[in-house]
Amino acid sequence: MIKLTGLLALVSLLPAWTVMVSAHTGYARQYDTAPTTGDDHGFQAPGPNDARGPCPGLNTLANHGYLPRDGKNITIPIVLQAVLDGFNVGPDVVTVAAKGALIAAETPDFFNLTEIALHETFEHDISLSREDFNVDPNNDNIHFNETVFTTLANSNPGVDYYNATSAGFVQKERQAIQNAVNPQLINNVKGFKIRTRESSLYVAVMGNITDGVATRAPKNYVQILFREERLPIAEGWKKNELMITADTIRPIQKEIERLSEFQPSGVQPNPWIRLGPSGDIDPITANSI
Ligand SMILES: *[C@@H]1O[C@H](CO)[C@@H](O)[C@H](O)[C@H]1NC(C)=O
Ligand SMILES: *[C@@H]1O[C@H](CO)[C@@H](O)[C@H](O)[C@H]1NC(C)=O
Ligand SMILES: *[C@@H]1O[C@H](CO)[C@@H](O)[C@H](O)[C@H]1NC(C)=O
Ligand SMILES: *[C@@H]1O[C@H](CO)[C@@H](O)[C@H](O)[C@H]1NC(C)=O
Ligand SMILES: *[C@@H]1O[C@H](CO)[C@@H](O)[C@H](O)[C@H]1NC(C)=O
To answer: What protein family does this chain belong to (predicted)?
Structure first.
């Protein structure tokens, strides 16, 4: 019975899906690259109608016009190009995340930066700078939260940089904190993999990736990235010359993974995909698969 209901829910989605897909047959992309050619990539804070979301890296790229400054109508090619141009991060590092963003969106082939926040699609608990979706009083998994960020801000005491070691300890400490404050915590392997990739990215992007596992990310650069969502160019930051790829970032990621002492905890659903905001956390209900 349960299986049948799930199947029916899926089948009932198919007509709409088929229409969306066929409407795009022979479809030429609106943009091959970001519609931001000619942008001077200076920093500009978002206005009230601009979309920003839970990802400080993507918000920063929009604040500098590598992504559309309004944070909207973003496609996979646009986001891959922006991440490459702004951070010298290669497509192999972020393609899955870009696809995840599309899954969370209402439209079939573009998204805005806020839509990424759909809980438990690509968005996850135990963020470095946002509170968990289910934590009161604000249930705000979108905006930067200084209290949450304290763990990272105060890490690696005594030196002026963060690195893979401190990033691993930060993940461990954040895991303990959210275990204590969020009864509805979802801390599974999917979230852990995404979190670890994100941690390795702030170290790699703000540091010099040629140093491998010993890469040092100056604290003031990382703090400006998270707190102001600004590239710390005036402070001396330069984009890496060596491209950050799955291979070049791996040593950092492995070290973070090791020191995180990941222990699955909280509510433990198997990872699945929510198809839209009306999809429930329960995979058996309609709009989740
Ligand atoms: C982003 O998309 C969502 C729909 O998923 C919409 O509710 C929201 O208003 C959009 N944000 C902006 C700033 O247009
Ligand atoms: C941009 O996205 C909005 C919905 O978020 C849509 O209404 C509009 O048509 C899109 N514009 C383009 C150029 O695709
Ligand atoms: C930030 O998170 C803390 C800890 O959960 C919470 O007490 C505070 O209300 C949050 N601040 C905002 C502005 O959401
Ligand atoms: C990170 O920095 C700390 C403090 O200087 C140091 O003890 C640790 O060995 C460094 N980690 C790596 C992987 O270089
Ligand atoms: C990083 O280090 C390499 C080798 O030490 C150097 O060539 C490069 O200029 C440094 N800076 C950047 C931004 O890549």
So the answer is: Belongs to the chloroperoxidase family.
